[in-house]
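Lab channel / #folding
Pinned by the channel admin:
"Please post every new chain as: sequence first, then the structure tokens as a reply. Keep commentary short and put observations after the output so the thread stays searchable."

First post following the new format, from NK:
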Amino acid sequence: MNTPFSKAAAHQNQSISHLSDSDLLRRAREISLEERKAGIALLHHLCEIERRRLYAVKFASLHEYVVRELGYSDGAAHRRISAMRLMKVAPEVEKKLEQGTLTLSTASQIQHFLKTEKRITGVAAPIAEVRSILTQVEGKSSRQTEAYFAARSPQVAELMRERPRAIDGEKIQVNVVLSASLQEKLKRLRDRMAHQNSSPSLAEQIEQLADFALRKLEGNSARRERLSRPERQNVNPAERPVEDGLVNAALRQPTEQIEELEEQRHRSLEVKNAVQSKHRRVISVQNRREVWRRADARCEQKFSNGERCSRTHLLQVDHRIPVAWGGGNELSNLQLLCSTHNRVKSDRLPGEY
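Reply from TO:
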């Protein structure tokens, strides 16, 4: 059966089959240039979409928007977003991409190098250094660019190689360089866990560590919840630990000192109330835990299509009604949001999106 696509392809083949060799080669060059220009136009659009945070209406990140809405693969989305962010730092990147002396892959490598270097040093590279790197890698392949970065900064290049690479739908490959001390720790862990698995792979050891850490964290939260102190109103007033122990001290003091101690207690409460008023944003640990438990450690932002944000990274406990507008720290006014949707929310009134 001929589909509309197959018919269009057949028509396209017929339209170019009569071209001379020189015309066919010239037309291919023209289409290649048009494709690069269209790609650069997309980078500008992504830049503005990111600036306005328009992706947050339906997605947790710009990357998710490019993959799910625009239909790019994870790798293609990563390359375009990285090139766009490099272009914001060094506008001359646009001309190099259009001329073909810099590819999306190379631009993505440069951006990844700069980001990793900043993570190590804590300082962004000056624009002069960025331009020097652009000059050095111009016209180079991805492999040559990788070799250049390895020679320029072995420490940064080592961390860059840790970037995950998809193998199939369920597995990824990560290159990790282990220090001697970490290898020794893993050997000790293997020996201690030998009764469960006498010869675990590195992946199995990492999974053991992750399981142990999660059990520890989640177990501690549940244990603290069980061992939390009873409500103050259920405690005998004579046994209740009052601020600075003043009342209990008063019960043990002669009658003539009670008034003075009670006055000190009132002054202490006034100071405490003033501090609480100043720091109304402070949320109790118990309420924070409950918000995380209730949200199942996932952003609670819901989109217009009924879907919920999938992000579990950089989550923040947020006030539905801001404190500045009278919102309190009660559970009904607290929610868990990712950093993206928390920032978007701060730009809008309650109920707007």
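NK: Residues 67 and 73 are 6 Å apart (CA to CA).
TO: also worth noting, The beta strands are 165-166, 172-173, 315-319, 334-338.
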